[in-house]
Specification:
127 residues, three-stranded antiparallel beta sheet, 3 helices, alpha+beta
């Protein structure tokens, strides 16, 4: 499948470890990472936010997958809340049904430990 890199609020992105996603696929539901679970919601990013989120929170982590999710399937469990710099970020309050993921793509690391995104994603804007 061709990876989805779309700039709109209908497609949001989440990064997770490949082994966590494999477990989720076996059960049909993804509860989020340990950090997501501690925060009480699954962290997502928009097209414009995801690369910076990876650089800030996943830098150097190998075995990461990028999940693309159609927001129309998430219903009222999806909330847009202010976070980094006051920007609105999508947060899912509840598990993610694996059927709601429309695409996945590995995020390999370059020689500097920075994730290599599929073409079409804007580079990070770090503070």
């Amino acid at each position: 499948m061709r990876y989805v890199a779309i700039m709109n609020d209908k497609i949001i992105y989440h990064m997770c470890k490949a082994d966590e996603w494999a477990q989720a696929q076996a059960s049909g539901s993804y509860p989020g990472s340990s950090q997501d679970q501690a925060d009480g919601f699954i962290h997502f990013s928009t097209y414009e936010q995801v690369w910076t989120s990876a650089a800030k929170h996943r830098c150097g982590q190998d075995g990461i997958l990028l999940l693309a999710v159609d927001t129309t399937a998430l219903g009222d469990a999806l909330k847009w809340e202010a976070s980094r710099g006051g920007a609105l970020f999508p947060h899912l309050y509840g598990p993610l049904n694996t059927d709601d993921v429309i695409d996945t793509e590995p995020l390999p690391l370059d020689d500097n430990g920075i994730h290599i995104f599929p073409s079409g994603f804007p580079p990070p804007e770090l503070d």
